[in-house]
Amino acid sequence: MIRVALPFHLRNLAGATGDVVLSVEGPATQRAVLDALEARFPVLRGTIRDQETQRRRAFLRFFACRRDLSLEDPDAPLPADVAEGREPFLVVGAVAGG
């Protein structure tokens, strides 16, 4: 089981409370986690990544075990602590402005 921590606005949109716990088929990767998340909460399709290109939305970042995974290959394995549910996969809303 993988825990996913969503920012408030996405958690609210999905109607979730707290971390989302997902079962992922096959290796635990960013793509597998996001596929499982969108399958469970179809309302999130297109909010975290573009539906056509599957690229991460500009103002969202992905973190795991204090590491920024936002620019890493979406098919790279996630850290073992995330894959085994000890640490969450974090979807974080970036802060921008001037």
Write the layout of secondary structure elements.
Elements (H helix, E strand, L loop, with lengths): L1 E4 L2 H7 L5 E3 L7 H11 L19 E5 L2 E2 L11 H4 L5 E5 L5
Could you name the CATH topology?
Ubiquitin-like (UB roll)
Strand-residue fraction? 15-25%
Q: Main β-sheet, in a few words?
A: 5 strands, mixed
Structural class, from helix and strand content?
A: alpha+beta
- Backbone CA Rg: 12 Å
Poorly predicted regions are: none
CATH class: Alpha Beta
Overall form: globular
Order of helices and strands: EHEHEEHE
Tell me what the CATH architecture is.
Roll
Could you characterize what this model shows?
By secondary structure, the chain is of the alpha+beta class. The chain contains 3 helices and 5 strands, in the order βαβαββαβ. The model has no long low-confidence stretch (mean pLDDT 94). The protein starts with a strand and ends in a 5-residue tail after the last strand. The longest helix has 11 residues, at 30-40. Strand 3 (60-64) and strand 4 form a beta hairpin. The chain has one domain (2-93): Roll (Ubiquitin-like (UB roll)), CATH 3.10.20. The chain is globular and about 35 Å long. Helix content is 22%, strand content 19%. The chain has helices at residues 8-14, 30-40, 80-83, and strands spanning 2-5, 20-22, 60-64, 67-68, 89-93. It has a 5-stranded mixed β-sheet with strand order 2-1-5-3-4, covered by helices on one side.
